[in-house]
Amino acid sequence: NGDRALKAEFRPITGRVDDLRWSPDGMRIVVSGDGKGKSLVRAFM
Q1: How many whole angstroms separate alpha carbon 13 and alpha carbon 20?
Q2: Per-domain residue ranges of the chain
């Protein structure tokens, strides 16, 4: 969209992303998936 600027770009997991959700308080995005042979969950603002 031309009227919006990208604030930040993250690569939270090096492998496949299985799920992407907002945290219950709506302050963070939580990502789960595979990373270097193990399951990972990451949260970021």
Answers
A1: 11
A2: 1-45
Q: Is the pTM of this model over 0.85?
A: no
Phi-psi region for residue 36, left (φ > 0), alpha (ψ -120 to 50) or beta? left
Distance CA 44, CA 42 (A): 7
Please state the φ and ψ torsions of residue 36, each to the nearest 5 degrees.
Answer: 50, 45
pLDDT per residue of the chain (45 residues) written in tens, 0 to 9: 567 787 777 776 777 888 889 988 988 888 888 877 777 777 777
Number of other CB atoms surrounding residue 42 within 10 Å: 16
